[in-house]
Amino acid sequence: MTVGTRATLWRNARLATLAGGEPWGLIEHGALLTEGDTIRWVGSNSALPAGLRADAEVDLDGLLVTPGLVDCHTHLVYGGQRAREFELRLQGASYEEIARAGGGIRSTVAATRAAGDELLFTQARERARTLMHEGVTTMEIKSGYGLSAEHEARCLRVARRLGRELPLAVRTTCLSAHALPPEFDGRADAYVDAVIAWLPQLHAEGLVDAVDAFCESIAFSPAQTRRVFAAARALGLPVKLHAEQLSDQGGAALAASFGALSCDHLEWLSQDGVRAMAAAGTVAVLLPGAFYFLRETRLPPVQALRDAGVPIALASDHNPGSSPGLSLLLMLNMACTLFRMTPEEALCGVTLHGARALGLADRGALAEGQRADFVAWDLDHPNELSYWFGRNPCRRRVVAGVEANA
Ligand code: NIG
Ligand code: FE
């Protein structure tokens, strides 16, 4: 054991490791040894190898321990809110109609541009903390409500600051191709040129871990999406896509051809899209919050994804327009009730597969060599994570080996 790095033995827990052959990777009476930010050993309380020594011991009191939750798709940084738009949709206006009339994403863009950096930060921090209190230890945050070089950079800086100031790992995604800002009305190709021109600056400032786009009739065409992706790949950045949310644009197959980390939403995904994602190893990120809140009826093709071996992740998609919720556990419940996923698939969706959707191989399971991110829950069995809703059973959160109750 490296001298100087503190080793901690976390004993007396039921572990859902999501590793190994058992369902859930369950270990009764389990223990974890962490050294610094890394898991060194996982097993039964009684089986700790004689050579491993701990500087400190923590009794987890029989709590259930899972990997830390990964929310792999959020739009956390924005100004304002869209409750009025919700009322209009309840009276019959559709999401597309509101967007075409200049509401929707554009109204959040106006509010975001008008908000100061500090307000954007404190509001996003509050949202992040709400998600963290339910066990989130890694979160993706997209830009996409700034839609200019200056305002996209501001939003991404806020996201990076959250990662520095909170006990939370943050991955940033540049979603400048989210909507057409008003100053580019009728000039979508010119806007795509502008995005391609500012992407290298954002990247050079260290603000971008991945690049996303919204490929949809109310947003960007497959040809425009392709241009954004080519620019991202030329910078060595991985891509992901809001694909097939409201119609089948062939976006998933396009994204897969660029080796996309993930395609997200996917209610209208075709069999060709499924095949392309399977061949490329692209993760399907399902977003039951948006499906529910937009009162969609077309289900994502869960069985076809399973049959093709496409890993399925789940995320909150937190944003003010289509998914204003801040509970990842509620997404597990909804994935089971609305999408017919199993509780075990749902947990893998916010751990192993959520991590993979961000290109992170170092987290998502409790196993030797993984980052020491885990959560202790006041539950007997991991299937309860999908069962309760409106109850927060999270008791302890450990991020990179350090207990963090922010
Ligand atoms: O993931 N689909 C596009 N983007 C967001 C919604 C954005 C908004 O309505 O503000 C989503 O659902
Ligand atoms: Fe989204």
Question: How do you describe this structure in short?
Answer:
The protein is of the alpha/beta class.
Textual characterization of the structure:
The mean pLDDT is 96. The protein is globular. β2 and β3 (38-44) form a beta hairpin. Helices cover 35% and strands 21% of the residues. Strands 1, 2, 3, 4, 5, 14, 15 and 16 form an 8-stranded mixed β-sheet that branches. The protein is α/β, with parallel strands linked by helices. α6 (188-204) packs parallel to α7 (222-234), α8 runs parallel beside α9 and α12 crosses α13 (343-349). The chain starts with 6 loop residues before the first strand and ends with a strand. Bound molecules: N-(iminomethyl)-L-glutamic acid and fe (iii) ion (FE). N-(iminomethyl)-L-glutamic acid binds at residues 104-105, 108, 214, 242, 245, 290, 317, 319-323.
Strand content is: 15-25%
**What would the principal axes of the Cα set say about the shape?**
globular
Count of helical segments? 14
Task: Report Rg.
Answer: 21 Å
Largest sheet: 8 strands, mixed
Mean pLDDT over all positions:
96
Poorly predicted runs of 5 or more residues = none
Task: Please tally the β strands and state the result.
Answer: 16
What percent of the residues sit in helical stretches (DSSP H or I)? 25-40%
> What ligands can be seen in this structure?
N-(iminomethyl)-L-glutamic acid, fe (iii) ion
Structural class comes to: alpha/beta
How widely separated are the two ends? 30 Å
N-to-C series of helices and strands: EEEEEEHHHHEHEHEHEHEHEHHEHHHEEE
